[in-house]
């Protein structure tokens, strides 16, 4: 069996090549399977995507047309040891026989002819893009020019346009740039030659008088061109037969040379070279036979098809037939003794192909006789015997072409044509409508001229399966059998194939959908394009039908999945038809409100009327913004009234379905009950702002209210407030002697007494331990404020019964009032703290109002600022590193970089002693930049010396100022690049407060860092004021639970529960959780029981200098390496 593979397997070029292959194979008793590689018969550029090794098990030799498959495909087939022969295209990377026209001889003949005309300035016009033939033809031109002692030119390209034509104008411009147009041009193809002639003519240049032109190929239009084109004729069918013969010889064991095998060509002289045609040399009349071509095409076309039936394909066939008839008639008169058998056969075959496409083939007889009369009148005017002989020749050739047609069956021919059209219309309709029929059964081939068919489709595993066979005897045509792609089409059908039949394989592929292959077997005329257009049309319809079946099945599965999901989900589903107003509510939606299925009607009022009045505006805005396109999706959180009159929190999410104009026609969504989540959020928010032991506002809430008071002083200069710090005396004795529980009871009592003595507008806060702070609002009498505070302290000092014993505590207080002129909360806290310590020094119950005498502390701050400037300039800072470990293995997974200041006089200064001042003065920016660079340098060192450190990270804390510094990202990138550190090795830690100050902008910036590969952790989690709804939007990888929560776990059930909630919340959001400040094994054990995966604290290691941290890492590596492996 010989395989023929081509982009298309029909038409003038590919059909002619395949005709030659079939003729040669039939003569040797071989069968043919033709594989089409392109979709729907479209000829495009080379299809490198066709990879299916169709029929390789059965195909013994392969003939390959141009632009069919890739070189890799051919190499793979050649690797099987079977012969490969290519036609008209040399395949780079594959050494095999290639059949080409004798380009060298044809070009040499053309150039020799032009030289005989006396031309010496001869240019070569190629095409762009070029192919292998172009290079061979140019080399032949160059060699011939040199042989004549002439100077060859470079190739002048004629570009290929998007409308599939050539544009000769650029080539003419390039030719003129030489100074003068050449005397003659050799064109690489007829198409480029005719494009050049048109461009020359448009500029007033006369061909051949001013410039002679010769083409190559002898296409049908060449003889009818003006002037008729002198060219080199080649036979595509001969190329096909030669290729097949070479393949069969190689298959039979006969050595076949690799490389080019040239098919003879013929130089055809017409007028574009400057000659007068053979016909015009007989007659002095300057007219020629080619002028009879166009009228005869119209005459014969009208006779066979009518004016409405002249398609482009039919016109091509008519031109070919006309050319052959003119050649036959001209040679009959000019050389009556010559053997014209081959010429007459070619004319009869061409005429048969044209006439066979019509219901009135016998109309060709009169038209051909009219052409014979016209030729006789042109070449032999007045010669009656010559005219009569030519008339008989016309009748003979027409009879030979129409020997299967007789006048008495012409009516049947018409009826047969109509019936064929009806049958194929039925097939197309059946493929489109299908109804309950399975198109894969191929039963739709019944009633066509296709005797046999087989359909193979890809399954989900990309394996081929036979799904349809026609005919199938008594069966329904359906199959479901595996089939190796190399075995398709099935060899079992070979015995049914007659010698004149062809097996054609067409891809069932369209618009990106690749379903498989359709094999059709029958006596197909490969030169009859309408038949193959029909086959390709079927393949397209089949692909579309299969796409529709796949889409319907996917829709069914999707609907089924949706139904099951809706039934199983906790969400309530709804579907609102915006055009009719009808709303579908799922049973679950109704159940969420406490209603049974029949108790809710299908209107939007049932939903919107139940929305809490305070939330109705938000719901209406969310609906409007989504429906008008401002928001791509709708999501709104609100309260909804239930059947018992209570309200529950819901989140509704929805998407709209829009028509072609973009107008929303449906709204489909879900509703989720988030009441428990909201309650948890509220609890977490409350716990984040209130002391868990006393219920008083904590430091964060106190600072928030203090900042509000500061802002108020700026708006109202007469407004005054005061910050009071209280520190209990004797609390430590109670706590140490009676235990933490009794100490907690004392703190609760003190908190209650303080709260009972202040106004509703004042704030009492517990800062931690036995420290309390008061924010006294709207102070009218600053001078009398100390007396007010003393009375408050006297209430605190009233004895309290603890453990059946009476205990007395006292307190000292420091006051800072807004009249002091400070602007920031830290300044007030600092001065109140200063005053408190002054009061404690004076004794229990003392109250001190901050005044200018205490300004020394402020001066100390100035000194600190100056020292910081010097420390930055002198590089006095260094980083310590505290390990972060896995709780289960105690293995180090990361290091937190902690800044230290090695002061020349004070020694090692802890960060709390200088960072607050640095943050307030802006020094954190240069310190932070240095920290990032030093951390990256240390990472590089550890990557080089610590085995396995690639799995560890180093965390760097970002202060508020540093986080918002626009140079943060450039600083990081510069440090990473400088030390060649991967982005994944560094982690930034940011506190909740930094993020929540401007959440939207912060989240955007965090996303930018995350996109660059920087991991982000939320530090001191639980001390800020983020919510669950906002936390899940943050692009962070871990939460670090503040040590204040960890330290209270053993003494406060609420703290224990809150830490558990944080761990659970982080896990649910897919975040790692790191507990800070672990100091005891009890704390570690409690965290392990809660599922906390990572921890950090003095229990594992204090912060270490870099050298000691390196030693610790190396020690861990050594222990790990020495541990036995399973």
What would the keywords be for this entry?
1126 residues, Rossmann fold, eight-stranded mixed beta barrel, alpha/beta, 6 domains, Beta-Lactamase, single chain, 36 helices
Condensed summary:
The protein is an alpha/beta fold and 1126 residues long. A hairpin with a 5-residue loop joins strand 20 and strand 21.
Q: What sort of overall outline do the alpha carbons produce when their principal axes are compared?
A: elongated
What class would the helix/strand composition place it in? alpha/beta
Task: Please mark out the parts with pLDDT under 50 across 5 or more consecutive residues, or reply none.
Answer: 278-287, 406-420
What's the number of helices? Answer: 36
**CATH secondary-structure class of the largest domain:** Alpha Beta
Spatial extent as radius of gyration = 47 Å
Q: CATH H level of the largest domain: which superfamily?
A: GAF domain
CATH structural fold name of the largest domain: Beta-Lactamase
Q: Which CATH architecture of the largest domain would you pick?
A: 2-Layer Sandwich
Give the overall pLDDT as a whole number: 85
Largest β-sheet summary? 11 strands, mixed
Helicity, in percent?
40-55%
Largest sheet: spatial strand order: 11-5-4-3-1-2-16-17-13-14-15
How many E-type strands?
Answer: 39
Map the helices and strands.
Blueprint: E1 2-6, H1 12-27, E2 32-36, E3 61-64, H2 71-78, E4 84-87, E5 97-101, H3 103-116, E6 122-128, H4 132-147, E7 156-159, H5 169-176, E8 184-187, H6 190-202, E9 212-214, E10 231-233, H7 236-251, E11 259-263, E12 266-268, H8 278-282, H9 293-305, H10 312-334, H11 341-355, H12 364-379, H13 384-401, H14 410-433, E13 452-458, E14 464-470, E15 478-482, E16 502-510, E17 513-522, H15 529-568, E18 572-577, E19 583-585, H16 587-592, H17 605-608, H18 616-627, E20 634-641, E21 647-658, E22 664-673, H19 675-689, H20 699-715, E23 722-729, H21 731-738, H22 740-757, E24 763-768, E25 771-776, H23 785-796, E26 800-802, E27 805-807, E28 810-817, H24 825-842, E29 847-849, H25 856-873, E30 877-886, E31 892-903, E32 907-909, H26 915-921, H27 924-945, E33 953-957, H28 960-963, H29 968-979, E34 986-991, H30 992-997, H31 999-1011, E35 1015-1021, H32 1028-1031, E36 1038-1041, H33 1043-1048, H34 1053-1068, E37 1072-1075, H35 1081-1089, E38 1094-1095, E39 1104-1105, H36 1106-1122
Parallel strand pairs: 1-2, 1-3, 2-16, 3-4, 4-5, 5-11, 6-7, 6-8, 8-9, 28-29, 31-33, 33-34, 34-35, 35-36, 36-37, 37-38
Antiparallel strand pairs: 10-12, 13-14, 13-17, 14-15, 16-17, 18-19, 18-22, 20-21, 21-22, 23-25, 23-28, 24-25, 26-27, 30-31, 30-38, 30-39, 31-32
């Amino acid at each position: 069996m010989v395989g023929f593979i081509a982009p298309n397997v029909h038409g003038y070029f590919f059909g002619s090549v395949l005709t030659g292959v079939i003729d040669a194979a039939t003569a040797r008793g071989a069968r043919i399977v033709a594989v089409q590689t392109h979709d729907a018969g479209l000829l495009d550029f080379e299809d490198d995507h066709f990879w299916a090794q169709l029929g390789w098990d059965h195909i013994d030799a392969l003939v390959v047309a141009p632009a069919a498959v890739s070189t890799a495909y051919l190499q793979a087939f050649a690797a099987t040891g079977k012969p490969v022969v290519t036609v008209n295209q040399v395949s780079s990377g594959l050494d095999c026989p290639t059949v080409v026209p004798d380009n060298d001889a044809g070009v040499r003949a053309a150039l020799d002819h032009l030289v005989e005309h006396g031309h010496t300035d001869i240019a070569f016009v190629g095409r762009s893009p070029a192919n292998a033939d172009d290079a061979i033809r140019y080399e032949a031109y160059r060699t011939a020019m040199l042989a004549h002692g002439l100077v060859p030119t470079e190739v002048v390209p004629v570009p290929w346009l998007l409308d599939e034509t050539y544009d000769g104008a650029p080539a003419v411009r390039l030719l003129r740039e030489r100074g003068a147009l050449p005397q003659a041009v050799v064109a690489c193809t007829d198409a480029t030659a005719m494009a050049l002639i048109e461009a020359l003519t448009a500029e007033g240049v006369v061909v051949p008088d001013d410039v002679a032109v010769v083409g190559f190929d002898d296409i049908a239009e060449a003889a009818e061109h003006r002037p008729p084109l002198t060219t080199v004729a080649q036979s595509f069918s001969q190329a096909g037969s030669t290729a097949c013969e070479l393949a069969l010889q190689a298959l039979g064991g006969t050595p076949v040379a690799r490389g080019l095998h040239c098919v003879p060509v013929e130089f055809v002289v017409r007028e574009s070279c400057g000659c007068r045609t053979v016909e015009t040399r007989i007659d002095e009349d300057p007219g020629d036979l080619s002028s009879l071509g166009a009228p005869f095409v119209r005459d014969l076309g009208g006779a066979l098809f009518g004016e409405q039936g002249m398609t482009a394909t039919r016109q091509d066939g008519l031109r070919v037939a006309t050319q052959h008839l003119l050649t036959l008639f001209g040679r009959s008169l000019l050389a009556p003794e010559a053997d014209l058998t081959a010429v007459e056969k070619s004319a009869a075959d061409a005429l048969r192909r044209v006439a066979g496409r019509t219901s009135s083939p016998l109309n060709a007889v009169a038209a051909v006789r009219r052409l014979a009369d016209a030729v006789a009148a042109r070449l032999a005017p007045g010669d009656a015997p010559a005219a009569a002989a030519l008339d008989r020749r016309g009748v003979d050739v027409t009879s030979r072409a129409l020997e299967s047609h007789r006048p008495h069956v012409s009516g049947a021919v018409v009826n047969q044509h109509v019936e064929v059209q009806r049958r194929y219309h039925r097939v197309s309709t059946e493929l489109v409508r299908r109804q309950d029929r399975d198109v894969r059964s191929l039963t739709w081939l019944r009633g066509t001229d296709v005797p046999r068919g087989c359909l193979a489709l890809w399954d989900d595993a990309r394996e081929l399966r036979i799904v349809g066979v026609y005919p199938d005897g008594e069966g329904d045509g359906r199959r479901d059998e595996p089939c190796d792609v190399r075995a398709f089409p099935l060899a079992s059908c070979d015995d049914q194939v007659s010698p004149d039949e062809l097996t054609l394989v067409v891809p069932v592929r369209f618009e990106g959908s690749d379903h498989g292959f359709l094999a059709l077997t029958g006596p197909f005329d490969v030169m009859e394009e309408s038949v193959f257009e029909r086959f390709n049309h079927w393949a397209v319809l089949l692909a579309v039908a299969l796409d529709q079946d796949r889409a319907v099945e996917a829709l069914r599965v999707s609907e089924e999945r949706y139904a099951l999901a809706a039934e199983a989900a906790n969400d309530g589903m709804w579907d609102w038809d915006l055009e009719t107003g009808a709303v579908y509510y799922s049973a679950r939606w109704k159940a969420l409100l406490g209603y049974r299925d029949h108790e809710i009607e299908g209107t939007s009022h049932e939903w919107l009327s139940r929305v809490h009045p305070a939330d109705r505006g938000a719901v209406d805005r969310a609906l409007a913004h989504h429906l008008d396109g401002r928001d791509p999706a709708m999501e709104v959180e609100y309260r909804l009234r239930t059947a018992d009159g209570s309200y529950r929190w819901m989140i509704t999410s929805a998407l709209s379905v829009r028509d072609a104009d973009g107008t929303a026609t449906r709204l489909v969504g879900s509703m989720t009950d988030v009441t428990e989540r909201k309650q948890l959020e509220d609890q977490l928010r409350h716990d984040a702002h209130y002391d868990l032991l006393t219920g008083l506002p904590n430091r964060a809430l106190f600072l928030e209210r203090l900042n509000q008071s500061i802002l108020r002083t700026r708006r109202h200069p007469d407004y005054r407030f005061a910050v009071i710090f209280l520190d209990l005396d004797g609390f430590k004795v109670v706590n140490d002697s009676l235990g933490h529980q009794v100490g907690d009871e004392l703190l609760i009592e003190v908190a209650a007494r303080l709260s009972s003595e202040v106004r509703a507008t004042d704030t009492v806060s517990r800062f931690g331990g036995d420290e309390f702070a008061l924010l006294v609002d709207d102070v009218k009498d600053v001078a009398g404020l100390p007396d007010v505070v003393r009375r408050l302290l006297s209430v605190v000092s009233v004895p309290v019964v603890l453990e059946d014993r009476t205990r007395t505590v006292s307190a000292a207080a420091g006051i800072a009032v807004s009249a002091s002129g400070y602007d920031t909360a830290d300044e007030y806290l600092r001065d109140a703290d200063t005053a408190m310590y002054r009061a404690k020094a004076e004794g229990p119950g003392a109250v001190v109002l901050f005044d200018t005498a205490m300004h020394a502390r402020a001066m100390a701050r100035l000194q600190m600022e100056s020292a910081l400037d010097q420390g930055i300039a002198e590089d006095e800072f260094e980083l310590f590193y505290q390990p972060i470990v896995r709780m289960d293995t105690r293995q180090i997974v990361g290091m937190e970089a902690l800044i230290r200041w090695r002061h020349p006089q004070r020694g090692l200064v802890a960060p709390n002693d200088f960072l607050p001042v640095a943050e307030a003065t802006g020094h954190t920016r240069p310190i932070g930049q240095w920290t990032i660079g030093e951390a990256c340098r240390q990472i590089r060192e550890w990557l080089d010396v610590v085995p396995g450190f690639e799995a560890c990270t180093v965390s760097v804390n970002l202060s508020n100022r540093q986080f918002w510094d626009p140079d943060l990202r450039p600083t990081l990138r510069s440090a990473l690049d400088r030390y060649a550190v991967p982005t994944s090795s560094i982690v930034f830690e940011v506190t909740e407060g930094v993020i929540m100050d401007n959440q939207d902008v912060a989240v955007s910036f965090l996303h930018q860092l995350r996109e660059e590969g920087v991991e982000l952790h939320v530090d001191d989690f639980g001390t800020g004021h983020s919510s669950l709804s906002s936390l899940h939007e943050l692009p962070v990888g871990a939460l670090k639970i503040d040590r204040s929560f960890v330290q209270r776990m053993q003494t406060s059930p609420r703290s224990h529960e809150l830490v558990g909630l944080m761990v659970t919340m982080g896990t649910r959001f897919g975040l790692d959780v790191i507990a800070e400040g672990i100091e005891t094994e009890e704390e570690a054990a409690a965290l392990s029981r809660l599922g906390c995966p990572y921890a950090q604290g003095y229990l594992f290691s204090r912060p270490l200098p870099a050298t000691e941290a390196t030693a610790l890492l190396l020690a861990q590596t050594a222990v790990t390496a020495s541990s036995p492996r399973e």
